[in-house]
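ZP: hey, is the iron/sulfur cluster complex queued? I don't see it on the tracker
AM: it wasn't, my bad. submitting now with these inputs:
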Amino acid sequence: MENNSGIFTRIQETPENLKTVAKKKLNQPGWRFGHITARVTEAGSFVVETLLLNTREGKGLVIESLLPENNPEYPSLTPDIPAAHRAERALGDFFGITAKDHPHWHTLILSSDAWEPDLTPLSPTCRGKREPFLFTNVTGEGVHEIPVGPIHAGIIEPGHFRFSCAGEIITHMDIRLGYQHRGVEKRLTEINWQNTRFTAESNSSDTAAGNALAHSIAIEQIADINPPERAQYLRTISLELERLANHIGDMGALSGDIGFSAGAALFSQNRGYVLGMAQLLTGKRTQRYYIKPGGVSRDADSSTLKKLAENCIILKKTMKEHIPLVLENSAVIERMENTGILSQRMAKDFGIVGPAGRASGSGYDARTVFPHGVFPEYAPAPAFYKTGDVLSRAKVKADEIFSSIEIIEKIIANIPAGEYELKNLPSNLRPESYGIGITEAWRGELIHWITTDSKGKISRYSIKDPSFNNWTGLGIAVRGNLVADFPLCNKSFNLSYSGSDL
Amino acid sequence: MNFPLLSIIRNGIATQKQAFPNLPDEAEGLPGFSKTDCNPGECGKCAALCPAKAISCDQNEVKIDRGLCIGCSICFKSCPSGVIINDRSTTTAVFKREDLIISNKTPVITPAKPLKMPFRKSLHVREVSTGDNITDFEAVAASNPVFDMARYGIQVTASPRFADALLVTGPVGKAMQEPLRRCREAMAEPAIVIAAGTSAISGGLFAGGYAEANGVDSILPVSCYIPGDPPHPWSIIYGILLAMGRISKAD
Ligand code: SF4
Ligand code: SF4
């Protein structure tokens, strides 16, 4: 398995040693757990692959463990590395691999409530033993359950939450996802690589730019191509516009959930303003299909860039006026402060990424270490708060609104002339290779991990959406809070359901 | 000091006055046809390039199925003779699935004749997200102060019990099929289902997989289809008004 990016090294370990080796690495400063997934070799055996990331030097380590043919089983990482707990359960669902001694070895997405009991879609043979989704049974005097969803009251994605409450206080929340499972990872191995970008973006299509960029980086690593300099600048504008639009939208949504309608109305309009900028650059409010392997799909002429720079100035002024309306409003602060606290320890253990991680003292922003677009060169200092409550998460987003505007202004001032795309892409990808694209999407670190087989066909495509681990963070943060504060906690994380369901 | 009211007053009225404007010049909409003279038997470039297999060419006709189109703009950017163009109109919704298939033989799209519907002045809509969050994103935008669908009497309700229409936005994979059916059963009659976005119409890029995410009309009868991936908020409002019977051909 080859990768020429200079970022990743690859080692082989027996399944028995995997846990010890991974843990030793993670005890060294700067290392964090990235992802764990599996693939099936051409000979038909299972390989478990663990990705560890060095967030100081921008390096990655892939540990490859070949599982015994007759018994696809390995000792679970979760008891030592809790951040792996959902990804390992997904291995059980999609491959029928067993992570021995996993403390909660139950189906994650493909529960038998909706799926055939033996379905393991990414394994060549059906080998699953699906069970219904297991909810935690909380008992005690006066404890009652409130089931919510999958269809919610607002315009949001489907998912089922089951609260166990003592009076009005949430003692535990189970999150059952998987309602939107569409078979994304399987589909990505069924089509030719030139068309995968369209499906890769639909992983969670509200993160079109982030997904497309991670996809493009992974493909570019495998095809050994480098997009032109100008394209990298344009891609970064697109990525930052997406962050701006969504963070601004979140400020409005938080206001809405508090009942502060003025904030909700103003910010939804501001978001529309940024979507207009995105449309100017990419042709679409949602920026879909703009970033692609080898560059971007259309150039921005000087008048477009000038217009964007002017828009940035106006937007900055508006934000300086509107953000204090929310974050310096005592009625709003009253609701956000000390609500939905995610402690630093929990955030670290469960690998929480993005604004939620930075609100709980993590300081990890993939823009500062992993190359994508013009990062790390133009990376801002990561927003950093320690309290981990709704207010900290809102503050992180507010800080990032301003830093993103600055980045865009700097990029427009420095953008080089030249091509915006590579004209001739190779028709085949390099065989027996892998590419790992890591970007800081607006929800946080997003990983697209592509592996090719001996013919250069994509044989495995694994996606780790920022929401995947952050759902656990939400589950922990709501404990001890009022049921009525759940919408507020949920909005402060604003996670993707479809990105986790795939 | 903090004066939200001042900011609101200074902000003025945000709501767009003109309904269903064309998208601005820089925007990329759906593919449409400008003229008929093309020789697909020889060229056929568009069909070969379309990643969604939405275009079919035979000897003398090019057909585009907007219910499959993901709006990647590749066809109209690469059509050598300008037959396929960028259609920036937002009045793209139709009543029947087959009306989404357009052909270079009949370049103009005309919305079908409105059905007699019992809803005229107002409609309560329950949005059901079934796997494509980008259309939800635009459905949220449709009710913001700029597009403000409430002014047409369109309200989003919290429960299907109060709703006249379901606005479904995703391809409906297996796990969402039963909840969607039950949601429809919970509604009082008469009620309609609107499919918004390519994934909801046909399953889009996910169709035909093991998750059986093949679009809404494989589960429930659909009264109105809104193409686009995602449709623009104006297209969504247009589609809902069309379903309500408030768009006549003359509009
Ligand atoms: S529509 Fe354009 S691309 Fe398609 S066959 Fe005709 S000329 Fe060729
Ligand atoms: S815009 Fe639609 S019809 Fe045209 S190539 Fe893209 S998907 Fe196909």
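AM: back. Chain A has two domains: 1-134, 184-500.
ZP: great, adding it to the tracker
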